[in-house]
Amino acid sequence: MAESYVKQARERLHHAEEALQRGSYPYVIRQSQEAVELSLKAALRFVGIEPPKWHDVGPILRQNPDRFPGWFRQGIPGYASVSRRLRREREPSMYGDEETGLPPEEMYTKEDAEEALGSAKKIFEACKELLEKRGR
């Protein structure tokens, strides 16, 4: 399952990169959030923790740092922060802001999209490396 999550995360990143090139910034945000969620859930499964059925797994990472190797453990505060931040953007990036009537296209900039995608790639690479080092 962990390997499947990593494959799915890679696919989300691929779509996010394409969306960035097209200027579809809300979709970049959404796909980046999903990539982070899948990557971190893969990491949790890898260390024997059943991931919860909610989107932000940062608190679970923070509660279980000793389950991870030191190099990965050092990144947990940052991974958890990105997970929380992108989780908050999950619905607005798809539906917009219902209160103000702003559609998603008016809520996100190229810089927002680049930041989300860059963070998602960093987390993906760390989680992928965690799984690859399994036999070492």
Can you walk through the features of this model?
The chain is mostly helical and 136 residues long. It has a single domain (2-135), classed as Up-down Bundle (Four Helix Bundle (Hemerythrin (Met), subunit A)). It is built from seven helices and no strands. The model has no long low-confidence stretch (mean pLDDT 95).
Brief descriptors of the model:
Four Helix Bundle (Hemerythrin (Met), subunit A), 136 residues, globular, single chain, mainly alpha
Summarize the structure.
The chain is an all-alpha fold. The protein has helices at 2-22, 25-46, 58-63, 70-73, 76-89, 92-95, 110-132. It has one domain (2-135): Four Helix Bundle (Hemerythrin (Met), subunit A) (Up-down Bundle).
Q: Profile the largest sheet.
A: none
> Structural class of the helix and strand makeup?
mainly alpha
Which residues sit in consecutive blocks of at least 5 with pLDDT less than 50? none
Task: Give the ordered list of helices and strands.
Answer: HHHHHHH
CATH hierarchy: architecture: Up-down Bundle
Mean pLDDT: 95
